[in-house]
């Protein structure tokens, strides 16, 4: 298409957009939504929406979040998608960074600025939160009974020896919401202490799954007993009849799940209507359905919720403990993911062996105290907790540069390659875990 | 078995036909495999900061402990899977082709079902049966206080992969066994060779093309497969590493593509090694007896033992599907040997919601498989019978598809075809459902190609020459003599391509542009994202298995009948 034709087309588009805006009450046509949400959620909204706006045909395309982002990036040149609808705020950040979203301010009134400590909407209006979710601990009651395990309450409970080999999580590099949980612990407890907690829990992992749904799936089947999951996975599993329970620890973040209009959306008017619809009282009520179970962002909707429904706007302990700093999180996003993968996911065997030895030595020392043994054990714990980078280094753009997509200009200093950095961290973790195990075994020998 | 070198030369007189076919196939492979893949993996050779050509990324690969560990794990798992898969396939293939065995066709068909392991749900079923807290281990623990780590770490991957892919060996080996000239066996018997020695020295060596074709497929497929290890949460293997790298948000480093290149190179190496093993040997036989090997009648005691072995293997390899069936009827199945109760409602849900998925899948998978056997037969013929320069490369390039991760192919297709508008409608070409068929055909071409090559290796040249001497044209010779003689192998290729294309997910997920065009694997994916979707997902999985299983059985029956009729003409 020639340049002038482009111009004409653009002008036509503007005219068309303004004319449709004038008659926005009655949108029509096909509306294409790319989403990572399960069928339970999308089909419930689809039904409600089509009842209210029968002239719009809603076409829902399921992709997992990552594939959805890739899909939008690859198809941007001739975009056919109107809306992107997914949980992880960071996926929207990636799209926003790539200039693939379009600002829109929802017309719905009465939606607060924050849920817990997290802002509901993007400050620039590129995407809007429509449902809140928080991370917590889910367990299979049959499994717990058979293995005689007590119910956990806080993250730190999961580090107890009794849960060794019973806990599961999805990798933060694979699941935006797990990433937020890890980051929440880091911000709540500080970099050093936070990683210590994370690694002590990790020592009890049974497995680290590749997709977020792998964790509730495994808890539902009883392949492992306890999972670190987002609330609606647990609540909807419960509603489907699985023998599972769920608790929010005190330190948790309530984060919004989002919707955003894609740049150059073919059916912008209908897209805007859809955004307003899901934020309206009518749309928000859909979230209360047993198979969905997400927390509405419209506080008025809670009046219609069942009695024991968690309400982050009333229950102040929910998600407000940590004042979540989005900028700190953004600056070290990829570094935290890579650290978790290199120190925990891919070194899980070594970490578990060290943790096992520490648990055994600890139990033996409790029965037969020994100062030298205690000192050795403390050293072993420190070795496990040690980090190859400090909080300052993690936020350093130079390091982050090793993980970014964009090619720098030729004058920029060349950062280390990602593979080099990762190899360094992996070697660090491997050696430390081996040394920690040795120290713990020495401590155990002293307590015999 | 004498190779007639002289006449082979005469066939090789340059004719336009093979050259045209070769060019067409090369174009197809170029357009739908090479270009899309290169569009994606060139990043592996690019310096991230300057964009210049570099090999530093490969140096990083070999310096990285994790990648090297992954590499050896992948190698170990693939080799062990070939061993275990052979142990499963050999008895089934041997017993059903070598002896008079009631239900041989049924067993052959059931033996293919493991290939149709629907994504996600197959692994869930396996965990529920064999996992640490699965049926078997819960029962063992309750009654004997022991448990068997079937599914722990690499063991689990080997276990699931062998069950999943052993049909490659079964199908190709059976096809080969059936094609062996009865005269060979009879000559050996006349010379006093019997029993196991006969099998070891005469029958098995003659069936070697089929075995090697199957075993190399198993090796490469396990080496490149990412679904199973990922679902068992084993990520220190090569293919999962590539996938994790490529599909993670925010991390767009070249290593994922470097691993893809390594995977492709390793697959080609494995192929080359298996070709070396077959080199310099001639497996063709001139005479085609009715039904190949003589079928021996077994003594009653032998018969009982044989049935016991077959039954045991079948129960083992069909376990995932037994689990799947239980799951599709289960209300809740959690930490217990068997489901709490049974219900039909999941089938109701699927029936109402998923008819479109099933018709789409049948259409896509059969078109893709048809395309595969046509191209597979053509490539096999060109490679084995023509003297075109560079003809081996068609084989190598087509086989390389095996090592291309589905995600890479999917993204490559989007990059290559998204900006091409369709004639008349102006929709992006990548959204046209036929593109999905091409993607499936490319992904499954290697299966069909290996089967067709093995089949053609067993057809003697002299049969073609005889036909041509009698005045038949080349085309007529191929269509009336060569292809019918290859029919067993072609069917094997069709069945494997069809069955596996029906449940392919990774490329599909990138290329589905509208729900009405979506195949079954996509529907399964959608169901398996929620707790409430597990039952309906399993029911949809059962549908997939039944449909593909029935298709397989029917094609076996048809081929067997044709074979018998031809046999009677002798």
Automatic annotation (TrEMBL), chain B:
This protein's GO CC annotations: plasma membrane
Q: Has the keyword Cell membrane been applied to this entry?
A: yes
Q: What Pfam families does UniProt report for this protein, alphabetically?
A: BPD_transp_1
The record describes its membrane topology as: Multi-pass membrane protein
Tell me where the transmembrane regions lie: 20-45, 75-95, 107-130, 158-177, 198-220, 257-278, 304-335, 362-384, 396-418, 424-442, 481-503, 538-559
Primary site of residence: membrane
UniProt xrefs under InterPro entries? MetI-like (IPR000515), MetI-like_sf (IPR035906)
Record key words, sorted: Cell inner membrane, Cell membrane, Membrane, Plasmid, Transmembrane, Transmembrane helix, Transport
Localization: Cell inner membrane; Cell membrane
Any one GO biological process = transmembrane transport
By sequence similarity, the record places it as follows: Belongs to the binding-protein-dependent transport system permease family.
What PANTHER family does the entry give? INNER MEMBRANE ABC TRANSPORTER PERMEASE PROTEIN YDCV
Query: What is the recorded name of this protein?
Result: ABC transporter permease
Species whose genome carries this gene: Azospirillum brasilense
